[in-house]
């Protein structure tokens, strides 16, 4: 019996059985390989559409209902996700991946498309804003740039009677959002038992967010039973977590994983070098012992059987038939008998008493028979290749382990500052195990591509293709990294920007192993990516503005300076009066110096020096120098005067 | 003469034209002296951690206790494995990682370097941070054989133990990749290049298969080098290797963190460039600086971390040196604390310096302080180039036509000649007339010589290793005769004038200067070393004819001839001594490497890791040297267009 | 050898173009990776001329892909035709250039001037030949003896020229509308040029300025920058009435330095266009700082890629490194530009005052 089918059981019930209980909850437990435990919580409430219209809510959360009415939302899917599902070792995803989202927050909804595009966008922003208030998440940051309109990837889950108008699907993601207890608390508030009683009493922030993988989902959809009685609006809340048993069983007061005391170490004595101080750790074998109260820190408190006609089971454990499971009930040690049991699933129903505790204990046990590991429909991974902050490449690898081909829809919604080059898009496939075979191009059946507009709209890429049997499809394309305005960077600019995970929908296929007949098919998501962008210097605005303006001003100034003025021979330029005055003063000083010299030395020296001086001063100012010399320099230095005179003439 | 004319001739004034040789000599001297003052406290700084998120040594480390037993066991296991064949070894390593709980993958690679094939396989495992979203990762690396080729028993064992220990923590915000390459150069290179590329295109030199498992963007890589077998050995200090390919350096914060953790938290001393005993004295600082400059200018890999740095992944190697009392556990705790610090990072390391010269484990000179050294050296070439350009713009008129030139001015240039001696500054006569420059031939020659540089580059990087020494000898021989030959051809065939020679040298020097100043920003040390070795090129002038020498006017023919020969012989000898191949051999001899080994290393770096040192040597320095030779000889042979 | 020279003398154009084509093809054959390499250089490729982008499916990109490549040719083409006094062709070429990337429109006035000048000369020559039977009309002579009556009216010529241009533009828009589904290409082309939404680093002055600009002043400074670019066209025309070719070339230089998505290609095109003013080289090198400017250009061409690598790939340098180099680059180009302006003016001045040759002169 397949996990996925089991987990869709409540859904199947809800849609098949005529009398739908107004509220039911279920916890599914399943040990995973390597000492992990999967716990899937499911809370389903519903109300008739008439009651919904008349705002008459019983188990259906009023706060959410009003938001939905106000934003004319036909169907809502909201996801909070953290960590990774390791499908290499844990096998296929719970609920066929239909109740999980990409890292961070993901939301898609069908809104009334009446009133045109503008009205729809108005409703969408209403929806995300009020939801962000309700769940303490920054959903309000989902604006036009983070919203896409997928065509093939999602289909309405709800069965809608006649009368429903046309709808429009909008899809938004927040990959950078960190999911935390502040999101869990409002989530629990929506439950009728508010997480105080029933299986929801296990949900405690410390444990949920210490999980290796956890996803919370809220799905609201209309359901119209086949039996022609009136349609109902159903809300399904799920919490799926995978816990590391060893880690979560640590005492809360001492969570530090100190090295074990030496005596507690299980060594592999078979090693030749085994010695008291040399211990090769032994490989764990068998199933670990665990109990609800140890793992979740508390047993199940009471039960939450509210709705009449709710005869379903509360807890199901999926373990091998010969695994010992005893369910302690109340303070006493009286065990609870399975409510239903088929070969490896045991269903328990909590007693209706409100304040009695129930705990499940599974002991350490070595079991030869390995639990059947069902393969996921596909393995997918996506990486950014290349280095540097100018350009890069996207590289998605999709591996089909099954012996039959599968049709998939590959959806990517990229931020606008990642600029893909669609002409470089290559989709190639090659057999997984044999590399010698040549790679061949995969034909794209359909391709929907909405190019990004800077600062307005992100890229939306949707591909419909077929993954051949037992082969790997590699999808690559190049892109450029835009550089932003310095106000558009986050505070941690050098970390990079998160790119939302790619959503892969495996279309239901009659021949495919996973196909269980419903129209949804199964989903899986790659991990989100980190996109480093080139960063400017954030401390520079003033300097840059000043420097650039200076250069431009230089060019402008010098060019127009040349353009507007006319050329004149330097000789024709009348000397500025200031220059004349300066020259005279200099000449006077020089002359005085000379005359002093002349007095000190004899006339002989005086003459020659006078001559030299005259020659020298001629450079500065002939007339002044010459005149002074005639008085000072004694008898026959007229020559010097003369030289200075004609030199000076030259200089005018 | 008129003021305007005076102003016009200012730029051609003899003073300005005599200045450049001294100016560039000054540049060179200051440039070299510059490095020697860096070790002083005034010009270097104490290192400090500028990224606040790191918080080095703030966490308590728990690695120890029973982990020690596990470590011993792993070391024994590694020792056993080392006896097995390669396939079994890889399988065994994979098994151990699997038991630890990592996702294991292997990557075979093949390089063809200097005619030999190098095959190997990287084994690596991915530890997914429990609550990480797979966007970031850090690498813990322990090469199977360390850089000296010793088997890295304890390093690998410690890495495995740490991985097993890390697995139990839930604090990791980034994935941890445990990488065990088979060797310390090719393996990491293959891994990191495959990590950053989509498809692995096979080339003649490299064939790398793509990675089956990848994680997010690599934030940092730390390699452990502890080649001690089961017998164990306590070490004294951690030698921190940080030089990347082509002299790229990791962010200084990573280094500081390692030093702070090791010495501050664990009390393990850290050393740089194997300076085990470093009394923080001027002498020791200078030695460290010199070692740093040499290693950086080589541009070769210095450890397994080197391959990561060009991909903007900050990486270091922790190498245990000396005999002391520190054991593997303290190294383990250091690594744990270091990874905790890296794990704290919110952004990629970007705060601290990427350009620095370390003088000690905790002292450095930043780019602002040391760059001028290389820039001055490059500037010296540019100055000479400008001067030559200006000179080439004017040809001297006949001495008979010198009216203005008085006796004293007549004497000056001759005195110059005597002063400078070997290299003679061409001082033009007082009056010159502007001349049209003929630039075609010089440009062609310079280009041709630069293109010719690719021949030795190709030969020395693609031949089989046993032919390399031969090739080097051939290159040496050809490059020694090439200048004389070319210059004779030019002067005899094309009747090159002095002006053309000047333009030729000017172009070549200008190019050299520009290239070096650019290189200084990429790999300072390489630019500096090449600049120093090439600095004499800016003083080379055409050899004077003995007849031109003023003090030999009266000498007889035979004597003049002898003088000619003597001058040419001496200068040719000096010039040959400065030729790249000769200098290369001299360096090998000085550092005690065998030439073949060095050549193979260079070829390896070029082919496998894209080290461009040999390119700089053969396509930048060598052509400049050849042109210099041509210029010098042009004077001797037929004295070209010297009137 | 003689044969070659003869051929060259016979039809130089053919030889030139054959040689150019040969080189281009040879390069393509020798280095097949060259085009990719070039498209990936930041200094060369900008959003509006990036060939790679052109291949993406949006029309803005498809459309403006041809721009940069064609612009230069168109500008040159129109110049050459203007020199042959073929107003219509010239106007059409300008229209084509301006249609694909806005700023060549600024070439319209100088080219119109050039056209007008040539037309005058031609008509003058006609007049000459009609009066003096078959005397060779060399320009100086005609300038001396031309009766103004035989010359076309400047105003009406200008009107005709502008009209031609407008018609051509209209035709082109109509044509583009035919091949494209809607009118949306108009905003998507011209807004990209006017608003600079794409701040990818290039060799120009705009990108870093508008990265660091405060949002409140962004549109204001965009306006200022465009006005500044526009402000040169008319003054050049007025000042260089007697040498319109200089006006055209200088305007091309202004565009190469100040255009929004500047790149080395434009600068190169301009530097090669400088050869049209070859007679000014001596003046520039005699009186100005040409060699330093060119050396600076050399340095910045080497340092630019290095700093870009340090910033973008090595991550060891930050944006300021590359920004500084773009400043130096633009500055060097500006110096060359200013020198050319000086030389052109001085050339004109010396023509009328031959005694001033080689003397020191002042500006008033």
From TrEMBL, chain A:
Keywords from the named record: Membrane, Signal, Transmembrane, Transmembrane helix
A Gene Ontology cellular-component term: GPI-anchor transamidase complex
Transmembrane segments: 542-564
Family annotation (Pfam families): Gpi16
Gly residues: compositionally biased ranges: 613-627
Coiled coil: none
InterPro entries noted in UniProt: PIG-T
Start and end residues of each stretch annotated as Disordered: 603-652
Signal peptide, first to last residue: 1-19
Domain of life: Eukaryota
Any one GO biological process: attachment of GPI anchor to protein
PANTHER family: GPI TRANSAMIDASE COMPONENT PIG-T, GPI TRANSAMIDASE COMPONENT PIG-T-RELATED
Protein name: GPI transamidase component GPI16
Organism encoding this protein: Friedmanniomyces simplex
Automatic annotation (TrEMBL), chain B:
GO CC annotations on file: GPI-anchor transamidase complex
Transmembrane segment boundaries: 20-40, 370-390, 439-460, 467-486, 506-539, 559-592, 612-637
InterPro entries linked to this entry: Gaa1 (IPR007246)
Pfam families: Gaa1 (PF04114)
Any GO BP: attachment of GPI anchor to protein
Keyword field: Membrane, Transmembrane, Transmembrane helix
Gene3D superfamilies: Zn peptidases (3.40.630.10)
Superkingdom classification of source: Eukaryota
PANTHER family named among the record's database cross-references: GLYCOSYLPHOSPHATIDYLINOSITOL ANCHOR ATTACHMENT 1 PROTEIN (PTHR13304)
Protein name: GPI transamidase component GAA1
Organism (species): Friedmanniomyces simplex
UniProtKB/TrEMBL annotation, chain C:
Any single Gene Ontology cellular-component annotation: GPI-anchor transamidase complex
Entry's localization field: Endoplasmic reticulum membrane
Subcellular location, principal: endoplasmic reticulum
Membrane topology: Multi-pass membrane protein
Keywords: Endoplasmic reticulum, GPI-anchor biosynthesis, Membrane, Transmembrane, Transmembrane helix
InterPro entries: PIG-U
Family: Belongs to the PIGU family.
Cross-referenced PANTHER family: GPI TRANSAMIDASE COMPONENT PIG-U (PTHR13121), PHOSPHATIDYLINOSITOL GLYCAN ANCHOR BIOSYNTHESIS CLASS U PROTEIN (PTHR13121:SF0)
Name of the featured protein: Uncharacterized protein
């Amino acid at each position: 019996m397949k996990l996925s089918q089991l987990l869709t059981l409540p859904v199947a019930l809800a849609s098949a059985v005529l009398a739908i209980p107004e509220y039911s909850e279920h916890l599914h437990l399943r040990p995973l390989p390597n000492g992990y435990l999967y716990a899937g919580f499911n809370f389903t409430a519903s109300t008739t559409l008439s009651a919904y219209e008349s705002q008459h809510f019983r188990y259906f959360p009023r706060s959410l209902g009003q938001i939905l009415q106000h934003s004319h939302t036909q169907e809502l899917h909201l996801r909070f996700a953290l960590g990774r599902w390791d499908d290499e070792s844990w096998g296929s995803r719970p609920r066929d991946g239909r109740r999980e989202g990409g890292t961070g927050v993901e939301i898609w909804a069908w809104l009334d498309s009446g009133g045109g595009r503008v009205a729809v966008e108005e409703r969408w922003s209403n929806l995300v804003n009020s939801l962000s208030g309700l769940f303490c998440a920054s959903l309000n940051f989902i604006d036009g740039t983070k919203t896409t309109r997928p065509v093939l990837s999602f289909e309405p889950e709800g069965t809608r009677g006649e009368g429903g108008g046309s709808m429009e699907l909008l899809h938004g993601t927040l990959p950078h959002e960190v999911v935390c207890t502040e999101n869990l608390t409002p989530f629990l508030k929506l439950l009728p038992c508010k997480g105080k009683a029933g299986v929801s009493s296990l949900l405690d922030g410390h444990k949920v967010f210490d999980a290796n993988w956890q996803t919370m989902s809220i799905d609201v959809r209309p359901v119209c039973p086949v039996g022609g009685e009136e349609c109902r609006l159903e809300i399904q809340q799920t919490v799926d977590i995978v816990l590391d048993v060893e880690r979560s069983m640590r005492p809360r007061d001492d969570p530090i994983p100190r090295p074990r005391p030496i005596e507690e170490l299980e060594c592999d004595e078979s090693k030749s070098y085994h010695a008291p101080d040399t211990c090769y750790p032994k490989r764990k074998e068998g199933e670990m012992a665990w109990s609800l109260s140890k793992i979740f820190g508390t047993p199940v408190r009471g039960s939450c059987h509210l709705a009449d006609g709710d005869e379903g089971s509360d807890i199901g454990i999926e373990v091998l038939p010969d695994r010992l499971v005893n369910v302690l009930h109340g303070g006493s040690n009286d065990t609870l008998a399975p409510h239903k049991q088929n070969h490896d699933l045991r269903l328990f129903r909590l007693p209706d008493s409100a304040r009695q505790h129930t705990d499940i204990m599974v002991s350490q046990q070595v079991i030869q028979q390995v639990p059947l590991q069902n393969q996921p429909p596909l393995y997918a991974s996506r990486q950014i290749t290349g280095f540097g902050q100018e350009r890069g490449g996207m590289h998605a690898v999709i591996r089909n382990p099954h012996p039959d081909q599968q049709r998939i829809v590959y959806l990517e919604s990229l931020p606008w500052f990642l600029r893909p080059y669609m002409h470089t898009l290559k989709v190639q496939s090659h057999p997984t195990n044999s590399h010698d075979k040549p790679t061949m191009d995969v034909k794209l059946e359909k391709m929907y591509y909405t190019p990004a507009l800077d600062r307005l709209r992100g890229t939306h890429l949707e591909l419909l293709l077929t993954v051949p049997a037992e082969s790997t499809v590699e999808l690559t394309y190049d892109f450029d990294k835009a550089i932003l305005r310095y106000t558009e960077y986050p505070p941690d600019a050098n970390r990079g920007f998160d790119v939302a995970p790619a959503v892969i929908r495996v279309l239901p296929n009659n021949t495919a192993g996973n196909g269980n007949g419903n129209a949804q098919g199964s989903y899986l998501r790659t991990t989100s990516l980190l996109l480093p962008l080139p960063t400017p210097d954030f401390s520079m605005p003033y300097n840059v503005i000043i420097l650039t303006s200076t250069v431009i001003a230089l060019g402008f100034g010098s060019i127009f300076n040349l353009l507007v003025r006319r050329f004149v021979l330097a000789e024709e330029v009348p000397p500025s009066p200031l220059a004349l005055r300066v020259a005279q003063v200099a000449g006077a000083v020089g002359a005085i110096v000379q005359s002093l010299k002349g007095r000190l030395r004899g006339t002989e020296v005086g003459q020659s020096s006078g001559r030299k001086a005259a020659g020298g001063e001629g450079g500065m100012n002939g007339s002044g120098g010459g005149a002074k010399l005639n008085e000072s320099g004694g008898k026959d230095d007229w020559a010097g005067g003369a030289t200075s005179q004609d030199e000076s003439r030259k200089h005018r | 003469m008129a003021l305007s004319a005076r102003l016009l001739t200012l730029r051609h004034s003899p003073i300005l034209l005599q200045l450049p040789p001294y100016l560039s000599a000054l540049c060179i001297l200051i440039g070299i002296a510059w490095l020697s003052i860096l070790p002083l406290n005034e010009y270097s700084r104490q290192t400090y951690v500028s990224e606040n998120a790191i918080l080095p040594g703030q966490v308590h480390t728990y690695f120890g206790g029973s982990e020690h037993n596990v470590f011993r066991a792993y070391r024994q296991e590694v020792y056993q494995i080392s006896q097995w064949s390669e396939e079994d070894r890889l399988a065994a390593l994979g098994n151990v990682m699997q038991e630890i709980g990592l996702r294991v993958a292997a990557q075979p690679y093949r390089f063809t370097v200097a005619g030999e094939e190098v095959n190997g396989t990287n084994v690596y495992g991915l530890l997914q941070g429990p609550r990480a979203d797979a966007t970031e990762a850090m690498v813990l690396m322990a090469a199977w054989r360390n850089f000296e080729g010793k088997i890295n028993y304890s390093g690998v064992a410690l890495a495995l133990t740490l991985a097993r220990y890390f697995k139990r923590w839930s604090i990791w915000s980034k994935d941890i990749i445990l990488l065990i390459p088979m060797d310390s150069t090719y393996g990491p290179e293959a891994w990191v290049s495959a990590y950053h590329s989509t498809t692995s295109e096979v080339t003649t030199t490299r064939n790398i298969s793509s990675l089956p498992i990848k994680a997010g963007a690599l934030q940092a890589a730390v390699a452990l080098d502890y080649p001690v077998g089961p017998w164990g050995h306590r070490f004294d200090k951690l030698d921190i290797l940080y030089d990347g390919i082509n002299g790229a350096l990791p962010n200084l914060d990573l280094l500081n963190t390692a030093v702070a953790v090791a010495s501050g938290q664990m009390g393990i001393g850290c050393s740089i460039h194997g300076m085990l005993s470093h009394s923080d004295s001027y002498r020791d600082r200078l030695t460290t600086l010199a070692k740093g400059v040499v290693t950086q200018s080589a541009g070769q890999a210095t450890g397994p971390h080197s391959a990561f740095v060009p991909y903007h992944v900050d990486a270091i190697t922790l190498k245990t040196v000396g005999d002391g009392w520190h054991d593997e556990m303290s190294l383990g705790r250091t690594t744990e604390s270091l990874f905790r610090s890296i794990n704290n990072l919110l952004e990629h390391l970007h705060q601290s310096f990427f350009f620095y010269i370390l003088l000690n484990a905790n002292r450095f000179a930043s780019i602002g302080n040391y760059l001028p050294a290389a820039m001055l050296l490059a500037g010296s070439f540019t100055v000479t180039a400008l001067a030559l350009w200006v000179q080439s713009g004017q040809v001297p008129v006949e001495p008979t036509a010198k009216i203005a030139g008085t006796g004293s001015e007549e004497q000056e240039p001759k005195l110059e000649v005597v002063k400078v001696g070997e290299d003679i500054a061409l001082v033009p006569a007082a009056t010159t007339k502007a001349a049209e420059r003929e630039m075609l031939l010089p440009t062609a020659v310079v280009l041709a010589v630069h293109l010719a540089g690719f021949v030795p580059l190709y030969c020395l990087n693609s031949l089989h290793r046993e032919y390399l020494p031969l090739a080097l000898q051939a290159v040496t021989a050809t490059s020694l005769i090439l200048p004389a030959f070319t210059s004779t051809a030019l002067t005899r065939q094309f009747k090159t004038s002095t002006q053309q020679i000047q333009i030729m040298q000017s172009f070549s020097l200008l190019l050299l200067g520009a290239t070096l100043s650019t290189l200084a920003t990429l790999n300072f040390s390489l630019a500096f070393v090449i600049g120093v070795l090439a600095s004499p090129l800016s003083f080379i002038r055409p050899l004077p004819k003995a007849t031109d020498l003023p003090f030999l006017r009266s000498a007889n023919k035979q004597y003049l001839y002898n003088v000619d020969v003597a001058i040419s012989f001496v200068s040719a000898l000096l010039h040959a001594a400065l030729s790249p191949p000769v200098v290369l051999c001299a360096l090998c001899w000085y550092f005690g490497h065998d030439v073949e080994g060095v050549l193979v290393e260079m070829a390896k770096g070029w082919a496998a890791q894209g080290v461009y040192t040999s390119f700089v040597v053969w396509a930048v320095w060598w052509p400049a040297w050849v042109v210099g030779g041509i210029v010098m000889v042009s004077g001797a042979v037929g004295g070209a267009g010297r009137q | 050898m003689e044969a070659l020279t003869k051929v060259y003398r016979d039809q130089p154009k053919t030889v030139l173009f054959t040689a150019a084509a040969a080189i281009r093809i040879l390069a393509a054959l020798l280095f097949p990776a060259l085009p990719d390499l070039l498209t990936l250089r930041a200094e060369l490729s900008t959003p509006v001329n990036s060939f790679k982008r052109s291949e993406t499916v949006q029309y803005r990109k498809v459309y403006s892909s041809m721009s940069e490549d064609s612009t230069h040719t168109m500008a040159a083409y129109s110049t050459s035709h203007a020199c042959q006094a073929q107003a219509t062709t010239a106007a059409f070429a300008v229209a084509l250039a301006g249609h694909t990337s806005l700023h060549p429109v600024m070439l319209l006035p100088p080219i119109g001037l050039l056209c007008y000048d040539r037309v005058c000369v031609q008509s003058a020559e006609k007049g000459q030949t009609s009066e003096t039977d078959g005397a060779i009309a060399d320009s100086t002579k005609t300038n001396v003896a031309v009766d103004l009556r035989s010359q076309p009216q400047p105003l009406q010529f200008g009107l005709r020229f502008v009209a031609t241009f407008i018609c051509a533009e209209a035709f082109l828009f109509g044509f583009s509308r035919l091949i494209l589904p809607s009118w949306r290409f108009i905003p998507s082309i011209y807004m990209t040029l006017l608003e600079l939404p794409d701040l990818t680093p290039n060799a120009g002055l705009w990108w870093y300025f508008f990265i660091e600009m405060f949002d409140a002043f962004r549109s204001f400074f965009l306006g200022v920058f465009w006005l500044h670019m526009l402000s040169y066209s008319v003054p050049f025309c007025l000042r260089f009435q007697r040498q319109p070719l200089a006006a055209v070339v200088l305007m091309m230089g202004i565009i190469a330095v100040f255009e929004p998505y500047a790149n080395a290609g434009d600068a190169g095109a301009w530097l090669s266009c400088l050869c049209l003013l070859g007679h000014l080289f001596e003046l520039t090198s005699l009186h100005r700082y040409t060699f330093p400017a060119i050396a600076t250009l050399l340095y910045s061409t080497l340092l630019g890629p290095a700093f870009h690598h340090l910033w973008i790939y090595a991550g060891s340098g930050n944006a300021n490194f590359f920004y500084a180099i773009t400043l130096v680059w633009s500055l060097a180009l500006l110096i060359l530009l200013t020198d050319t302006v000086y030389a052109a003016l001085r050339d004109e001045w010396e023509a009328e005052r031959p005694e001033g040759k080689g003397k020191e002169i002042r500006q008033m």
